[in-house]
Structure prediction request, 784 residues.
Amino acid sequence: MAKRSIQSSPAGIQRAKRSFAMKGWTQEYLAAEVNLKTRQPIWRFLTGRPVDRQVFEEICAVLDLDWREIAAAPPAELIDTGVLRDREILLSKNVLKEAIPIDIDELVKQIRAQHREAIENQCGILQLLDISHPVSIDDIYVDVNILEEIASHKWLEITDLQEINPVEFDRVGLGAIDLTQIPGMEAVATYSKLRLLGKVGAGKTTFLQHLAILCNRGEFATHQVPVFITLRSFAEESRNNHGFSLLQYIQQAFSSEIPDLAAIETLLQAGRFLLLLDGLDEVLNQDSMAVLKEIRKFSEKYHKNQFLVTCRTAAQKLQLHGFTDVEIAPFTQEQITIFARKWFTALTKTNARSGRNTSIQFIRKLELPENWQFRQLVVTPLFLHMACWVFHSQEKFPTKRSEFYKQGLDLLLCKWDEARGVERDDLYRGFLLPQKLRLLSQLAAITFEQGQYFFKQDDIERYIGDYLQQLPGAKLGAEELQLKSEAVLKAIEAQHGFLIERAHGIFSFSYLAFQEYFTARKIVASHNLHSLESSLGRLVTHITDPHWREVFLLTVAMLRSADSLVQLMKQEIDVLVAADPYLQEFLVWASEKSRTIPSQPSAATSRAFYLALVQDPRQSSDFALASTLDQGIILDAVLDNLQLKCSLPCSPDSLQITTCRESLSKILGTVVDDDGFYKSLQQLHDELPALHQSWAKVSIWWQTKHPKWFERLQEAIAHYRDLNYCWQFSPEQQQLLQGYYDANQLLLDCLNSNCEVTAAIRQEIEATLLLPQRELEDREWQGE
Prediction:
């Protein structure tokens, strides 16, 4: 039976002390590294006194020493047998190098050749979600970019982030804050020990597989042998075998092709391995410290090799000594285009030309203004794959974005880890899926209601604590509640990626779309439960806030019946301008003017045009041409444009005068059918100075006669077309009128979003859009 304790030899003590001194540690620190409660075993070890055998071996391992070389007369039964024992004996006699000359380059070639097929099988194919067949990595891979500076490492205040447009901040993590990007291959060439961070589905594993394939084919790191290790598998096997040893794990991986395992360590000592360690965040908590310690020891002992470790950004607190942290950057527009072209060629089983044409249609529709929410999400391979799959099935993006977001939630909450066989620690402590969704909805609704796109860690933990206290049977003390709130935040961040740390101690939802979706989900859930305080009533108070636009669209799409919401929106919109007599007078004019159109496409469209004409004349002609072919509206639009062109500065150039003359000529030659109006415009046209005159005469005319000429032009337009531009709105009225117009546009967008609205409610709302208060009251009195 083996001795239970071992002591250091005099020579071993000296070697141990030198290694200890080089580390620069204290005895207390070394004790902590070996998981000892006191430093007494360290003192005994360094002074040659007996130490428990297991503790002795662990101290030597941490100090990068072979315990057999430090121990005084180690028991024979503890010395390994076989090839390793023979090799150690040769090493101790310093004869291996002389006895067995080794050509390292030739050995690399042999091992690469013997292991090539295994690497191709392990890393050469991908199994994408919802795709029934494997896909070659060459057919789908897109080169990634790297952020050398980690956004969450920045020390910033919320005020530094609040200026960022929430529509944009998701694309690069911190929007306007500049984070330099470099190609992924450049980062690998720059750093020998690299930890690659990234969001869920950012492409970390695929990047490592790509490197393994390139190295395997001799296109990258030709002097090294690639080794791809899934760390969760390593942890599981090590736990079952009661020991964490990367050396043994690698030797086992090569054992079927390379009987001479001593060759593996020879190459490790020479720095001839490319070690790709995937998924540090996927290791269970119970194994994480042991895995970290083994990676650190292994990378220090075999420091000449190249190491890449992947980890979710949220789990970066698992520090890895000696490694440089970088982060995968979101896809650029160019990368999105390349990915789409590859996807539609490889996964639709079509030819390159057909796949390219489909990808062009995909990109064109993605770039449409109404699809900006999709553009916000598809900056990672995971969501880009999902968007391509949906587009391939429907040849368009879903009108109800809520369905797309729901699929995204299912991905992040369940399918992503399940498809890859990842088991996570139960940091939610028994939370069921509905409870997780309710928690996320409550967090989103609280922060969005307060206008918070960024929030401090203390605040979000407090919101989580408030939710935990509401759970049935929850009786948590203050300290226990704080600990559980912290654990839940870490789980949401690390497991699902819904919340991320934007800067040190400052969090946000990973995508604005998710914060908006969860907010809408909370509103719908509260409405379905018939809460005493109407959730829809609170929602419509934000009818003029542009930040709530997407929440309205998502809510109306998710409701089983949207009748109540659209009616409340219409009532809130009408109230906006009901108390202002001058604005009511303006609406009366727009309503009466719309009735003069002989062939109206719809009364509401005509009223909308005349409101737009006064609000933003520069866009009125485009609005008219886009909405109707009615000649009366087109005439009013071009007349409005004419006034803009003829209202020129005091010193016009020849081009401006030519433009004014040509605009009048076009109007006279096309759309004017009133004789009196035609004669007035013709006379004004004839009074314009001819361009063949000297520029001095033209300039004198403009300065002396143009003001009166322009006044007569306005009078003619006002008289014949009732386009009286003397409406004088105060800044407050202008803001109110713009909010009124935008809110009506939002209501129309909701009605046109395939929501569930009865035909009678839809018709009533469309008929009464933009009507003044007195006409609304008349309709109500008449029972229409």
